[in-house]
Amino acid sequence: RAKLDGRSRFCIFTEAMDDGLRRRHEIERDLRLALAAGDQFDVHYQPILDRDGSLFAAEALLRWPGAPGGPVPPELFIAVAEESGMIEELGLWVLREACAFAQQMALPKISVNVSAVQLRSVRFTADVLAVLEDTGLPPERLELELTERCALDSGAATHRNLKDLRAAGVMIALDDFATGHSLLQYVRDFDIDVIKIDQSFVSRLGSVDGTDQVVRALVDLGHAMGLEIIAEGVETEAQREALIGIGCHIFQGYLLGRPLSREAFRGAGFPQAGERPA
Ligand code: C2E
Ligand code: MG
Ligand code: MG
Ligand code: MG
Fold it and tell me: What ipTM score was computed for the predicted complex, to two decimals?
């Protein structure tokens, strides 16, 4: 009996794996077609606000509205694009869209997520600088977000890119901070300007498990290292207040605003520093 149970469970498991694999293959095929067809992707913009509600930056978030098999979360199609060699083209397209939008809207800063795969390319810095040149966006107003989740390799190309981009004035942020294994290693190895405290910490603020103390320690440490600190996934006023108490004053999350289409973002008219009525 026990053996039979084990066998049937094993079958279900492999079927589920097959389904997952089949879905990834479909996504890969559809992504390829969408890239060839052009005009199939969108960028949404989520506001990042400071403590008085002024716009500090916006984060560009890729969307694939017409995906043939129904909506695909960005995490999934981006992972497929990374595995199948399409992320460079897709990532460059997002960068161009986002920089053009930021320049058009005179945004104080635009944050763009960058895959570790893009950073490994010897062409990456030149591509970024060409986009800045074409769109007229000053490098200081571009922030590239690297995620701590996927291993940044310590290869020469990654180091070179980050060094050259920083030397050109581009800002580097570490996304999903404190979720990876390496915690502070990246900050040390890669000359980071900004850390983004992951939502999994923000959502546990005020609980009894010591999260507040951990976040406070991260914020203090970050500030001591001269880093700017942004809290991600802020959903409630209580979380915002806890963060202010802890010393973190820049927020992103549904409480402040969801990711919005270009038009909706423009229509929302987020006040920029110095523009708010007294
Ligand atoms: P991320 O860079 O950490 O982006 C923040 C994610 O949290 C976004 O999910 C955003 O919609 C979501 N979010 C923001 N505020 C809240 C909140 O208050 N509550 C909750 N529950 N969620 C919130 P999204 O847009 O689904 O993107 C997921 C991830 O996909 C991003 O995480 C990023 O790692 C990746 N991604 C998105 N666009 C790009 C891109 O253009 N290039 C690359 N390489 N990765 C991207
Ligand atoms: Mg991000
Ligand atoms: Mg993040
Ligand atoms: Mg996150």
Answer: 0.98
